[in-house]
Amino acid sequence: MCGETIYLNQSNHFIVFHTCYPHSFLTMTSHNFELDCKKIHDSLGALSQLIQSLACLTQLERQQLRETYKAVYGEDLISHLQRYEDVFSSTMKCSALSLWMLDPHERDAIVAREALQQDETNFKALVEIFVGRKSSHVLLITQAYHNRFRRLLDQDIINLDPPHPFQKILVALAASHKAHQADVNHHISKCDAIRLYETGEGNLGAVDEAVVLEILSKRSIPQLNLTFLSYKHIYGHDYTKSIKRGKYGQFGKALMVVVKCICNPAQYYAKALYTSIKGEKRDIGSLVRALVSRAEVDMNDIRRVFKEKYEKELADVICEGIPPGDYRDFLVALATRSK
After folding, report:
1. What are the transmembrane regions (predicted)?
2. pLDDT by 10-residue block (mean), the chain, 339 residues
3. What is the spatial distance between Cα 164 and Cα 204, in angstroms, rounded to a whole number?
């Protein structure tokens, strides 16, 4: 687990050493970013001695480290890390370390672009962004997306071909981040829950997708979460059970993913992590995306749910599924990180 050891140097200055594992040979100080940058710059391909300490840095520390590296060496730290990523990740061609060192909104912009450019659009990656980020952060993502790719994220989602049920939902969620009220309202949640019931399992015909999309587009994620809680309180079961019972078709499969991600993110990500390693086809991209995006959010909850659900520690499952080496050590360091 990550921890801190504090020493008093000869100048009577406190130095904080981040210690994730006892075999981390080069430790990084949180007060002297120039020294940290020198260690990274001089490490060349031997990043194995630094990766666990890098995994312990906070977002602010990573930002300061990147700014210092640019000032001292005239190069973006990300570019330096990417140059040695192939050595660092061995046979795993996945830029986990580079993604980790990016500002979160830059990272999400890159993840979104990669999701849209795949042969089969990675809709789950997009859902995780629009469901798991605050509206202020989503605004920064769209700005970073435009600055980096000279494209509009919303428009790229709308223009996807062929059309897909996820597409409608993502457009609605994007609209919700622009239009919702900050405060949650219990009366609205009850009214929306009733509307969802009446257009779903309480309706003999097919679900009215327009009603569902309207609610998704006008409510914040916390408000939607409250609506699904109200649904369970009123009708005695989760809205996901209603989706299974109603005539939702392919739209329902997409909606199910969104609702699960909203209602219980720890459970959603615990399953996503397990499936990415133990599923029919190992999905390193999904594994990295989940670990990097949730390490500073709710990794403690995810680990707890993972252990309860699969009766194994998350770190142990990663070690079972990923070959030994620096890359695995870095993923384990993220998975065992305390917030």
Report:
1. none
2. 38 37 45 84 72 88 94 92 62 70 95 94 97 94 97 96 94 88 89 96 89 96 96 97 91 97 98 95 92 96 98 96 86 90
3. 24
DSSP H or E stretch at residue 50 = none
Distance from CA of residue 107 to its chain's centroid?
9
Q: Which run of H or of E encompasses 82? A: helix 77-83
User: How do 3-8 and 14-19 pair as beta strands?
Assistant: antiparallel
Cβ-contact 338, 294 below 8 angstroms: no
pLDDT for 204: 81
| DSSP-derived 3-state class of residue 152 | coil
Query: Could you write out the DSSP letters of every residue in 84-118?
Result: THHHHHTT----HHHHHHS-HHHHHHHHHHHHHHS
Task: Name the residue with tokens 């949640």.
Answer: 189
User: Which region, left, alpha or beta, applies to residue 180 given φ > 0 means left and ψ of -120 to 50 means alpha?
Assistant: beta
- Put simply, whether the predicted model's pTM sits higher than 0.85 gets the answer yes
Read off the tokens for 80: 């330096």
Q: Do you find a cis peptide bond into 265, omega within 30 degrees of 0?
A: no
CA 110 distance to own-chain centroid: 12
For residue 8, the 8-state DSSP code is E
N-terminal to C-terminal alpha carbon distance within the chain: 11
Secondary structure (H, E, C), 250-317? HHHHHHHHHHHHHHCHHHHHHHHHHHHHHCCCCCHHHHHHHHHHHCCCCHHHHHHHHHHHHCCCHHHH
77-300-134 Cα angle (round to 5): 65
